[in-house]
From TrEMBL:
It comes from Paenirhodobacter populi. Residues 4-241 form the ABC transporter domain. Gene3D superfamilies: P-loop containing nucleotide triphosphate hydrolases (3.40.50.300). Residues 262-272 have a biased composition (Polar residues). This is ABC transporter ATP-binding protein. It comes from the Bacteria. GO terms for molecular function: ATP binding; ATP hydrolysis activity. PROSITE patterns: ABC_TRANSPORTER_1 (PS00211), ABC_TRANSPORTER_2 (PS50893).
Length: 285
């Protein structure tokens, strides 16, 4: 399981309030898209879940336990660019994380352990469509291939939460469609919760189970220091998507009733009414 609970989270940098009182429950295996205007704190929010930034106030819990203060293998991340090591081969990049972990546990890497990691890395590269590129360096790959590599590298650590910061933002539309299909397959197959920052609403609707929009409700310059961004919209994708179940007919809608991913706890959520139609609640009313 990998449910995330965010309780009354605030982030301030000096005088500037970036995030204001964000509370959110994310169900295990949800795919949440995070949208909002530039500078509203999406990356900051992701970095707090990753453990690269600490909250000024509030808590983040993963499966009911407070998140450790530093990044760990339970949380993987892919950025728009520069997620991979340029001086390592494709295979080396994918092996690096597990090798470091096994070196820490065993003191050094034994031949058999290393071979097992290499086998797993090759299988992962095949999974993301990079079989045959094992000996290349990242600079020899296209942008789409580099992002596939970054995904493979993150997934090798078997994260419970995968954080994506505009991972497909720099790709051409055709390549982006291919990698969307890959991303959807990986989310269906692997037990993980995904949180993705994107500027592309179409991408958000294509991939996610739920869209969270951050917005600064008061945005006059003199108010910026006193008010941060918070959740302005919480939109359920309808018909619902559930990881591992590809069609609506495989989804037991009644079992979803207590699932915040699909039922949405906040104003602005689109809820199924039970008769197959969606009902949208006003965001601010
Ligand atoms: N380390 C930092 N020190 C001070 N201010 C910061 C720091 N990191 C971010 N900020 C500020 O916090 C605000 C939110 O930044 P953030 O990058 O999280 O926004 P964003 O919504 O991801 O923006 P974009 O969509 O443009 O990537 C910005 O005003 C930014 O300048």
């Amino acid at each position: 399981m990998s449910g995330i609970e965010i309780r009354n989270l605030w982030k301030e940098y000096g005088e500037q309030i970036v995030l204001e009182n964000v509370s959110l429950t994310i169900a295990p295996r949800a795919f949440v898209a995070l949208v909002g205007p530039s500078g509203c704190g999406k990356t900051t929010f992701l970095r707090m879940i990753l453990g690269q930034e600490s909250a000024t106030r509030g808590e983040i819990l993963l499966d009911g336990k407070l998140l450790p203060k530093e990044p760990g293998p339970d949380r993987g991340v892919v950025y728009q660019r520069y997620s991979v090591f340029p001086h390592m081969t494709v295979l080396g990049n994918v092996m690096a994380g597990p090798e470091m972990r096994s070196a820490r546990i065993l003191g050094r890497r034994f031949g058999a352990a290393r071979r097992a990691i290499a086998d797993e890395a090759r299988a992962m590269l095949a999974e993301v469509g990079l079989a045959g590129s094992e000996d290349k360096y990242p600079a020899q790959l296209s942008g789409g291939m580099q992002q596939r590599l970054a995904l493979a590298q993150a997934l090798m650590m078997k994260p419970r939460v995968l954080l994506l910061d505009e991972p497909f933002g720099a790709l051409d539309p055709g390549i982006r469609a291919d990698i969307h299909a890959l991303m959807r397959r990986l989310w269906n197959e692997i037990e993980m919760t995904v949180i993705m920052v994107t500027h592309d609403l179409r991408e958000a609707f294509t991939l996610s189970t739920r869209i969270i929009a951050f917005e600064r409700r008061r945005d006059r310059p003199e108010e910026q220091a006193r008010y941060g961004a918070t959740i302005a919209q919480d939109i359920l994708i309808w018909p619902p998507r559930v990881a591992g179940r590809r069609t609506m007919y495989e989804i037991d809608l009644h079992s979803l009733r207590d699932d915040p991913t699909t039922m949405g706890q906040f104003a602005g959520t689109t809820r199924p009414t039970g008769d197959g139609h969606a009902q949208t609640y006003s965001a601010l009313g």
